[in-house]
Amino acid sequence: TPIVRANNSELSFLLLFSLTLCFLLGDNEQLALQMDGDVLIGGFFPLHYLASELQHSYQSKPQVPPCSGFDHRAFRWMMTMAFAVEEINNKSSLLPGVKLGYRLLDSCDNVHSSLRALLSLLTFSESADDETPRCLSGSPIPVSYFATCTCLNDKQVYPSFLRTVPSDLFQVGGLVQLVTFLGWQWVGTIGTTDDYSQYGIQEFSNHFRSSGGCVAFHLTIPKSPTAAEIQDMADILQISTANVVVVFAAEGQLWDLFLELSRRKVTGIQWVASEAWVTAGLLTFPNFHDLLEGTLGFSFPGVNIPGLKEFLLNVRPSPEPGMEYINMFWEEQFGCQLRFDLNPVCTGSEDLSLTSSSYTDVSRVRISYNVYKAVFAIAHSLHNLLNCGSAGINEGIIFKKFPFNVFCVPTGSTECIKCPDSYWSDKDKVKCVAGVEEFLSFSETMGIVLVLLTLLGVVLTAIITAIFHRFRTTPIVKANNSEISFLLLLSLKLCFLCSLVFIGQPSVWTCMLRQAAFGISFVICLSCLLVKTVVVLLAFRANVPSSGGLKLFGPTQQRTMIFCTTTPQICLCVGWLLGAPPFPVRNPTYQIVLECKEPWPLGFYLLLSYIGLLAFVCLLLAFLGRKLPDTFNEAKLITFSMLIFWAVWICFIPAYISSPGKFSVAVEIFAILASSFGLLLCIFVPKCYIILLHPERNIRKGMTGKYK
Fold first, then answer.
1. Are 170 and 53 contacting, i.e. CB atoms less than 8 angstroms apart?
2. Residue 398: pLDDT above 90?
3. Domain check: are 615 and 479 in the same one?
4. Which domain of life is it from (predicted)?
5. Higher-scoring residue by pLDDT: 56, 189
6. Is residue 684 part of a domain?
């Protein structure tokens, strides 16, 4: 079966011939990730995208060419297949009594390496008591998760070829429409020597010319380009008058050319990418930002596979045979070496959840989903075969998948299709219509009410601040360190204002700022209250009014205490945002809800727990001072405010968990506003009442309980 790269008819003939006269020449064992089963599914994945071309003398045994350039995204594809197989094996309704196994190999994105891996895969299937390899009965059935080449449409040549992605005919049509719609009639093309590129460029050029466009030049990147060839291609791109370039290639094949163009600081080229590299990590490299900025292309829509994230994060290295690929990934991911001895450089217990790479980014997977669909397509085919009364399944049958490309295919209403993300089926169930996105908006009634309450809180806080500043020399303001009172008022303003970040369409910066602003503002507020409570206890509990207890806890010590109690929360928030920051997502489980996803939920609960700890200490100390002189007892006010604070947040947790969609955001905002109003009104309104309405009590005797 010639599906290694679909670019060499002689290779196809030799492979079919070797299946008829199958025998093993020397040691053909290759590294593989495998799991035993009743039915074996083989898989090829381009874990490395650079393979050396060796010159064979045909006088000695050929050496295996080394591969380099580990691809984290391709390793995710490989582990997705392992995940799909395990998921199928755990389903009692699919293939009951039959266990699927797999053998996954590295194709190195190279024809010769792929053929070597294929032969290794075929000769691997042998009976336990045979010492020589046994050939498979019939040709293996390839199911591609990545092959979009138009050459594979010919069922006369490739009768058994199946794929979970559409042909490039659809992509080419879309690219031609895109280019002509934008008025680009003079473009260049770049491709490689494989069939994916050659057929794609050929179809694009034909359709483009028929639409009135002209191809200025075509460049072909060799399999192993020399420095001189790369420089010649870079020269053509620099001197050409065509500023639009259509590229059909994989990211690894473009690396050397882009490095040379980046070195020359070439800009001004509008790149139009095939789906093979339009979503690749290459576009995010800082060195290529100026060169590749504004690249356009089509991509398969991303989806979320439940359970895949947890499966990928549970991968661990091991010195056991068959774990070599996982060990390679681990060393590449953490930039270290595994030793598995007394002094390892890598421990193997590093936390993948704290890393950021194309392996761990599964919020919207594309090719991984095609792998997932391919495995399930095989499983359902086998299930149907068993249900049809088949005498059994030959344990040597191998279903292979090979690395090619992806693209979204338009289909008619006569087929049953799944609507893309953010789309729903219409009432007649014949087409997909855009869904309505839901989030807590500034323009809706609930959002307006929350904004008005927020502004009311800010205005009240500002008025109280102005009153305190006007009467800052009076005893009631000077008591208990007026500096702490002003800091408390400032933190309450921040508490009110932070609720505004929760309203509106979520974005990257609002998602990161929401919980951090809330957590730090409230901790500053509670730290000030804690200091006030301590000062009250020291002032009234001392045996002698001028005792040394209060002197030991002067303004400097009070500032230090506020700093020390606030710093842990700041460190927690910074670590959370750097390690696993929240990000906006579309949640289709309840309409289409735009919300902030927290990849590390423990961070939010730690933030709440620290706030709760400070509130509990404040409540405990204030409760101890409840029987102090009654003329003006701030400890009583703090006790009452903390009781309100605790009541609000105890009610918040179950309401937050049970509220769907945007209502969970509204619940958190209500909790923030209610607790902020409780603190503001309980602590400062009684003082303003004395300052404005009973100034005769705003004297030193009135503050010490001696006023009558």
1. no
2. no
3. yes
4. Eukaryota
5. 189
6. yes
Q: pLDDT tens, 473-528?
A: 888 888 767 889 999 999 999 999 999 999 998 888 899 899 899 999 999 999 99
Residue 472 and residue 590 in one domain? yes
Question: By C-alpha distance, which of 303, 306, 661, 588 is closest to 434?
Answer: 588
Q: H/E element holding 102?
A: strand 100-106
Q: By three-state DSSP, how is residue 31 classified?
A: coil
Rounded Cα–Cα distance for residues 529 and 523 (Å): 10
Tell if the pTM clears 0.70, that is, is over it: no
- Identify whether the C-beta of residue 441 lies closer than 8 Å to the C-beta of residue 310: no
Q: What share of the chain is helix, strand, coil (3-state, %, to 5)?
A: 50, 10, 40
pLDDT of residue 48: 87
183 occurs within a structural domain: yes
CA atoms of 572 and 580, how far apart (whole Å): 12
In sequence order, what DSSP letters do the residues of 426-467 get, joined into one string? Answer: -TTSSSEEEPPEE---SSSHHHHHHHHHHHHHHHHHHHHHHH
Residue 451 CA to chain centroid, in angstroms? 31
Helix (H) or strand (E) holding 291: helix 289-292
Q: In the prediction, which pLDDT does 464 show? A: 94
Tokens of 176: 């031609």
What is the rounded CA–CA span in Å between residue 248 and residue 250? 7
What are the start-end ranges of the H helices in 471-554?
Answer: 475-478, 482-498, 508-541, 548-551
Half-sphere exposure of 76 (CA within 13 A, CB side): 24
Max CA pair span of the chain:
114
Task: Measure CA 329 to chain center.
Answer: 18
What gap in Å lies between CA 344 and CA 534, rounded to an integer? 50
Phi, psi of 588 (to 5 degrees): -85, 0
Kindly report the CA angle at 158 between 156 and 159, in degrees rounded to 5?
70
Asked, for residue 392, whether it belongs to a domain, the answer is no
| DSSP class per residue in 71-95 | -HHHHHHHHHHHHHHHHHHT-SSSS
The enclosing domain of 673 has a CATH number of 1.20.1070.10
Helix, strand counts (H, E) of the chain: 21, 18
> Span 198-216, mean pLDDT?
90
Distance CA 526, CA 523 (A): 5
Count structural domains, the chain. 4
Q: Which domain holds residue 100?
A: 26-53+64-127+139-165+305-386
CATH of residue 273's domain is 3.40.50.2300
334 and 208 in one domain? no
505 and 582 share one domain: yes
Give pLDDT, residue 605.
Answer: 87
The token duo for 137 is 């009965």
Q: State the pLDDT confidence band at 234, using cuts at 50, 70 and 90.
A: very high
Same domain, 609 and 517: yes
Distance CA 241, CA 304 (A): 43
Distance from C-alpha of 530 to C-alpha of 537, rounded to nearest angstrom = 11
Q: Specify the amino acid at residue 352.
A: L
Check whether residue 187 and residue 317 sit in a common domain: no
Same domain for 535 and 495?
A: yes
CA atoms within 13 A on the CB side of 542: 15
* Residue bearing tokens 């839901």: 438
Q: Is 174 exposed, middle or buried (0-12, 13-18, 19+ CB in 10 A)?
A: middle
**Domain end residue (candidates: 297, 313, 338):** 297
Q: Would residue 239 count as lying in a domain? A: yes
Contact 51, 67 (CB under 8 A): yes
Using one digit for the tens of pLDDT, what is the confidence trace for 605-639? 899 899 999 999 998 888 887 666 545 567 788 88
Enter the DSSP assignment of 193: S
Last residue of a domain, one of 297, 332, 356: 297
Same domain, 357 and 322: yes
Contact 107, 114 (CB under 8 A): yes
User: What are 191's strand-pairing partners?
Assistant: 220
